[in-house]
Protein 1
Amino acid sequence: MQKQRVKDFLNIILNGTALGIVVGLIPNAVLSTLFKYLGAHFAPNVFTTLTQAMYLFQFGVPVLVGMIIGQMLNFKAIESAVLGSTVLAASGSLTFNATAKAWTGVPMGDLFNVMLIAAIGALIIKLVKDKFGTLTIILLPIVGGLVAAFGLVTLPYMKNLTNFLATIVFKFTTLQPVLMCILIAMAFSFMIVTPVSTVAMGIILFSNENFIGAGAATLGVLSSAAVLAIGTFRAKNKGVSLAIILGAIKLMMPNCARKPQLFLTILTTSAITGLAGYLLNILGNKDSAGFGIIGLIGPTKASELGSTLLGIILAFFVIPFTVAFIADRIYSDVLKLYKTDAYKTDNL
């Protein structure tokens, strides 16, 4: 029974984190490219404001994660609000720049720390809830602040975990180009369904002119989207399938955690798609490496950098979805490693 409770709690943390990330990122992922294009042709002030709003929406991810987890745990409004504020304060999305003597921000913060503090904060709030009586409105936020302070202590260590993963993937960029493209595509296809921010990883890894490596990273993200979109479609979750194509890939983090066999399909698809990206000369840079097909950022950037239209169509639309369909059928229907219901979501 205790083991089941722990499993249920961890599942809530995963589901809440995934849903919070998706809600916070979708507006910018879907509309930013469109707004930038429209703003370049007419009403630039209007579309600049709209673009900024979509970008700023991402800063709400830590709060959203905390509040959604609170709702899933049947917290009261104030308890969910405190958890959301706790996660925001500890997320690393807001940091003090001593040189500029000002607070600066990055969207989301560190997602490993977000999950850690969301879990710790939720446990402590469950422990003290209903024990403060009429002083709850004063004491509960103070408890949240203390947990957030602990989160600021763990933040550097969680960031080091992200940097460690970046170091491993960076070694792939020093390999022979074919092998590099395959391994980078596989790495990014894996990371997009974990708490790792592929956008941040893309910026860290491809600030140089490794355009072919960045293109492979883009195709890796796309490969996960292709597998998960096809899988959820087969599981009769057509709305989720569309959401994944539009950018909600991390919505499937709980599924991949529960059924790691899904990574066989994802990694197979990304390896073949990464190889195709090399052969078709699909290019990218730090701005597109972590996005895949989301907002058409990957195909647009590849076109700008000189990839051919035929190559883009094949690499972004034909090959990954074809390979994903075949690989999914082989692993699920032929080898019986998982059933179609492995793609069903329970966080919507």
Protein 2
Amino acid sequence: MSTVSTSPRRGRRVAAFALGALAVVAVASGCSSSEDSSSDATADQTAVVDTLSSYYSAFGADDGPKACGYLDPELAAKLATTGPDGTCESAVNAGHKNAGAEALTKLSELKYDATKVVVEGDTAKLSTKDVAELNGKATDSTAQIVLTRDGDNWKIVDLG
């Protein structure tokens, strides 16, 4: 693989990209780490929330290979272009390093309401606004977190 050099400015973009739009939600949230996977949620809705939680857990643990495993191959390849050595794993690790302890803690504490996940066929969407509101944060964001079914699993296509 080719080596990609990163400037300090690019390093900040790596962190922002790796954190995705949910980082905005996390900055001011101080919620418990439990997920709100209401008993009314379908298995697919719960699996989507599990995927998001697992991604941010791996990101927070500085486990680039595991975090990248939750990403759709196209998103992982796009993220790889921002990594110091051109890999998704190095991009996640750089994002982790640049995020800071407070942001990482808040990401690990995000709550999700699985019943708000909209599943249509092999695509699932969750509004960042719904996540923000559940975590006590007001936002005008209209961004969507998008996942796609990959066999029995869900892969993150867009973090909003």
Protein 3
Amino acid sequence: MIEVKNLHRHFGGFRAVDGATLEIETGSITGLVGPNGAGKTTLFNVVAGVLPPTSGQVFMAGEDITGLPPHVLFHKGLLRTFQIAHEFSSMTCRENLMMVPGGQTGETLWNTWFGRKRIADEERALKAKADEVLEFLTIEHLADHKAGQVSGGQKKLLELGRTMMVDARIVFLDEVGAGVNRTLLNTIGDAILRLNKERGYTFCMIEHDMDFIGRLCDPVIVMAEGKVLSKGTIDEIKADERVIEAYLGTGLKNKEAVG
């Protein structure tokens, strides 16, 4: 699905991404882990068109998408969420979802005058779809709540719901579990697994919770100092000496040796 070739993103003399090469296979839930400053979010931002690369290439299903802006990638089915949810706080959760699809009839002044029936029909269909998404995510009880007033974990679910309002092919999740309690984290994990298995979503996710990564992801890619350090199953990653040194810490190795 996604192929990244020798990608660089520099900020002055700092090489945030320094020759990273990786693949995200269609139908996978790929984990991206590494210490703070490893270049994970910068890599996401370059792939998703938020930042242009200094050099290197990004391909999606064989098409060169290097440097394409987010709105173009959105229409190709590449979406991303953010560590801090970006909701429309004064709108309801349902309305937040209904806002997502582009090219809606009511977006033009002409149609607001002469296309009222079409607008009404479209809004009914969007409302029905939004309600279906909220039910899928088990937050249908929040449909009429202001999005700015729900919990952090529920906002993360709402962000996931936005990807369901369009034909997403691959979704990049940036620390979807950050600041989320364990119960809601399990709900988010269940939703990701169902979207993957039932609807064919491909995911790539940055996450620091290794238990969460272990439950969802295969393979797991480890980054360090802007480069790809290792790739494998969660067990292979945990046993990799380079990963233990660079990310997990020598304490884990010593603990497992004692245990």
